[in-house]
Amino acid sequence: MKLFRGIVITCVLLTGCSAQNAATEEGTTSTSSPSDVVASATPSPAVTDEASAPPVKGTDGGTTSNPPASASASKEYMETAKLQTTFGFADAEGKHILMTREDDSEMEQMKSLNTAVGNNGQILTLTFEKWQAGSENSNGRESANNFANLRGYVYTVDEDGADPDETYYLTDSAEFKLKSLLEIQPAATDRGQLSADDPLRKSISAVKQREIKAAWKLADLPPDRGLYLVQFVRQNKNMLFSLVVEDGGKLKFMDYPAVVQEDEYSVWRVDDGGEVLPEMFSLLFAAETTDGLLLGLNWWGAEGINSFFLSQEGDTFKELDIQYGRYTSPL
Predict the structure, then answer these.
(1) d(CA 207, CA 302)
(2) Which of 126, 144, 190, 294 has the fewest Cβ atoms within 10 Å of its own Cβ atom?
(3) For 71, phi and psi rounded to 5 degrees?
(4) H or E segment at 186?
(5) How many whole angstroms separate alpha carbon 243 and alpha carbon 232?
(6) pTM value?
(7) Residue 24: which of 257, 310, 209 has the closest Cα?
(8) What are the per-10-residue average pLDDT scores of the chain (331 residues)?
């Protein structure tokens, strides 16, 4: 994927790549222009595998997010065709959410947005407040400490409040099927790593025919699914990590291949050190569609946060053409 650099960023594109394409970020040997904001190593479109695996889960734990209704009980399903690129982030107090835009030409549509979803499925009620013109004092970072200086649409959070500086997906509750959201149980940070003799880890390695460097559970999802992050051992210059869903004894992969270039310290993202860690990833939400699972994810890097959707289609996942990038590089 193309990567963040020291400029203002408002949108990130995470698009497909192959193992032959170098996965570098800005500041590496990538030929991306200076305005590119996402790494050049991104998931191949619908790069997935499915294989039988023992119905054995790795370690679990963690706390349950705000519990939405079960999709199986409500019979409601998310309509992916109605999803839009309408992301925002909270201010330092969690009382407001800002959706950055260059101009106010979408005012009527933005006034209709009344719900924010994020932070492992947290649901917030919003009230449109105003168009914010921004100021010359902006440092270009889409972060809480620069909230008042950015141009965009401002919403008031009507209840307990958002998590400060967290990314949220903004929507109209009449279009967004809230009852399709699934309860997310994040894995505890001290219990999520899969041991070398874990049966699930062995099954993943066998399917990919590749040795695993490290594997972690990210979350449990109903009715009996687990989301995992797996980094495989480097093969010459070829690197690979996968987001893996274990569902009823079957494995479904979203692969992120990369080829190491001259800067071996920036492989998938700027300054990632050639590794992925569970704290780099978080869930906005998980939902049920008529085709299977939909995941909204955040991927944290040294210079910013990429938000994107993975949608199941039969036995494969694909990345939807709906992404958001927050440039937050430290000053």
Answers:
(1) 31
(2) 190
(3) -65, -35
(4) strand 185-186
(5) 11
(6) 0.80
(7) 257
(8) 41 36 36 33 43 42 44 72 97 98 97 97 97 97 98 94 97 95 91 92 97 97 96 97 94 94 92 95 96 96 97 84 96 81
